[in-house]
Amino acid sequence: MSAPRPESLRDVSLENSLHDDGTAFLRITGPIPEILDLARRLDRSAKTVQARQRRALEEGEPIPFDLDGDVARGGKAMSQAARATRSSCAPSSTPAGSRSPRRGTA
Fold first, then answer.
1. pTM score, two decimals?
2. Which of 80, 93, 94, 106 could form a disulfide with 98 if both were Cys (CB 3.0 to 4.6 A apart)?
């Protein structure tokens, strides 16, 4: 029997951290080219937000994606890592018993 095609393994799941630290894991499974494309699009989006935050700070305008006021208080755009932790999430549709993704893997 042959291995399943990557397209048939597509899945998105949201899982709470094992620690009560206010974080969660977003796990996306699918064909490598699609995952790489998603990663590139997320990177471009993060860079766009960062540039718009800088421009808003320079021009005294409302700061985009500054949910907690950190950018306004600090006077500089958030790092891309900081934006990644502030993404909004939808409830998980992961079946019970599914594995949690490992930290530091993509």
1. 0.63
2. 94
